[in-house]
Amino acid sequence: MENSFGRILRDGVLAGLVAGAAAALVALLVVEPRIRAALRIEEARAHDGGGHAHSHEEMFGRVTQVIGGMVAAVVVAVALGALFAVVFARLRHLLPARTEFGRTMQLAVVGFFAWSLLPALKYPANPPGVGGTDTVTYRTVTYFSVILAGIVIVALAYLLRGYCLRRGWSSPVTVAVTALFVTLLSVLVLWAWPDNPDPVPGDVPAGLLWRFRLSSLAELATLWGVLGLGFGLLSERRVAATNGTRPVAAAS
């Protein structure tokens, strides 16, 4: 009963809630200063061009936008936590680790790679003022196509790992071959996929651009890291309750 799917799903939702709160905090403290700097550049650009910058600002002030973004981050993280739990329940037996905590962290690393890192390497996040509205659909499709490619790479890597083990290869050799395979396919995706069609305006400093991109990636890393850590600890507690033993992560 303690190890039922319902309990696993609740653990995923709870871990997602904590991960969303952590990611929202990173967004507030790390990402938001970069956004404000980019907004000042965008406002100056509009004034120089004789336009009216942020005519909607009085109705949707920056504070409201920040709070809304933080709430959205938590909601998305909760949904991601539920999805994480479903995937874990279905693929748990395929994850090569001895403990539930190890399996969970492996899945979190895989999720971060396919869902966040690979897309960010090909299409890094841009601050406000970079990117046109006429290319939103195109950019969205290409971004999610990289995510799909990342999932395919992970699936093929697990198939390759199983093949190597069935051939009797040692664990270090199997890990090295699998890592090389993932690297080569990732490089192929980064090379083959089309570039971002939107140029970066000349008034956006390179330092601001890359600080924003790194900050955005740090927010995603926090989300996946806390999600994996939280779900892993809850999984160990769940298994310990089922077996009547102490959680591995808490044992001395």
Automatic annotation (TrEMBL):
Transmembrane segments: 12-31, 66-89, 101-121, 141-160, 172-194, 214-234
Pfam families with a match to the protein in the record: CbtA (PF09490)
Keywords in alphabetical order: Membrane, Transmembrane, Transmembrane helix
Name by which UniProt lists this protein: CbtA family protein
Organism: Actinopolyspora mortivallis
